[in-house]
Amino acid sequence: MTGLTVGIIANPISARDIRRVIAKGANLQLTDRANMVLRILAGLAQSDVEHVVMMPERAGLRTHIERGLHQASLDNFRMPDVRWLSMPVSSTAQDTLEASRAMRELGVSAIVVLGGDGTHRLVVKACGSIPISGVSSGTNNAFPPLTEPTITGIATGLAVSGKIPPSQAFEANKLLEIIVNETRDIALVDAAVVQERFIGARAVWRPESLRELFVTFADPSLIGLSSIAGLIQPITRKAPVGMHLTFTSPQEALYSVNAPLAPGLLTPVHIGHTQHFEPDLLITPVSQQGSFALDGERELPFGPDDQVSVNLKHDAFNTVDVPRCMAFAAEHGLLRFPSTHHNNNIKEKLMSDNPFPLSREQLLDAYRMMKTIRDFEERLHVDFSRGDIPGFVHLYAGEEATAVGIMMHLNDNDRIASTHRGHGHCIAKGVDVHGMMAEIYGKETGSCRGKGGSMHIADLSKGMMGANGILGAGSPLVCGAALAAKHLGHGGVGISFTGDGASNQGTFLESLNLAAVWQLPTIFVIENNGYAESTSVDWAVACDSYVDRATGFGLPGVTVDGTDFFAVYEAAGEVIRRARNGGGPSMLECKMVRFFGHFEGDAQTYRADGEVEDIRTNRCCLKLFRQRVEETGLINAEEFNAIDSEVASLIEDAVCAAIDAPQPPASALLTDVYVTYSE
Question: Which range of residues forms the domain containing residue 46?
């Protein structure tokens, strides 16, 4: 390969040890790891790195990365050429060692490591003199810094390009060499002697098992075993010494500290002796038997008959000094480029009277649609209470901004599946208001000839596959519609609307998985109005955000204020664009409010006193929309009021027509039961 080549070793299973159970360590989802790699790649491309070789794996990381690279190509976003090493995969630490050796043989300029202390230790052990650049993948690491992967990629590219002097680009590091008879191993941060003579779950978290500790550096601001030394006497990464500590009982302790051995796990540790030691001096542990835990994981058991020593190596390997590289690049203008835009275009944008992402006409259309939904629902509330409407009715009033903000990005090729609270979705998707009103009244002129009623309105010509009285049932339908769109290649998307309560249904969760596996152009919209019927979301779902659920299935997601039309419109535009361009499924959670009960007739005894009045006053999406637009002077109150009158007439006409329309004849009872396909 010609041009700069950098290796990336991303451990797909780091940050999953037992400390996630006994402490408060975070787990990093596979999609998060993939996104971190993609950010590294973007940074490397910024610094003109042309080729990247990666370690293969079987956990699914490659699939997510390749999807991201495909999306980047569709967006004309420059990325390095990525290829994967041809090597056996065992899903063990051996993969990291073999990949590091292979990259060394290929002559890569640097290796970016995504993982914990243990992954970095293995890379250093096998990479020879190749510099590494570390990115932490967890909350329990001391060696790799918590640097944004994009910046790490930029700095690494600059360092290996020769644009920054090596004295500024790289930093020499210490390590510990541990010798047990003929076996040699290393530790980058700490080597602890523990009483257990077995490997077991590897991680070290019980302070009573600690016997001795050797550290290369001791930073009191970090976490893990080295923090014990840091709390006694800090040692910098550049200092030409290490520290040796022994542990004892509380009665005989020279010092005692509450050490953060793992995230959120502060444990008393009792130190009997401390001393500094210099490089290249063989130190024999006091303990006669036990195991060495290298950078927090048990690796080397030993007994009384074994020859054991520890040795500090100075200037043992190089890492990319990310902060210094970025500072040098900024001071010397390495990342500057001349502007290709004219100042006139900027001035025109700044002087524009319209600060919104829609034209004046589109803003009027958005308000007209939201107002139509609101008046439609308010009228149904009145007519149902008089007994004029048969069946059940679930009103969408208060949630209009979500339906309209999403549907303004759609066309008739796009398919949506609604819920039992579907009137707003229907209207926003373009279903005829007169036909809807007649359907709800159960009349022959209705959208479904009076046979569906409020919860089953559909209009396939508009891409409205139907409201649905079965909770969570729309999600599988949308997967089918999205699969068809993907095969037909017309750029259509499928959008499933699901309430916060229905998101607990198995069909919904299965649909998330299916859409992710098949990479369907699907958006799963969670309309979180705070109540699953009468049960507060606080009592129904274990996580704060439904987007967290999507992450578990490999879907990106975003949470927005569903009462803010502009927030919904912007977020929906991005997830829909992503789906159209082959980026796959995603989730959009809209936190919203409903003005009425779960159904008409709901006494709403579960709501707090004054709750409905408060949301009508302070969280009405129509009021918020008008206020923001009127403040700019782009549209005045008279124009909005004219739309109000227009919509009021439309709803009145629809009700009158529905009342005058005939009932479905008895002869229609058995029609529309089966579908016949033409050959």
Answer: 5-163
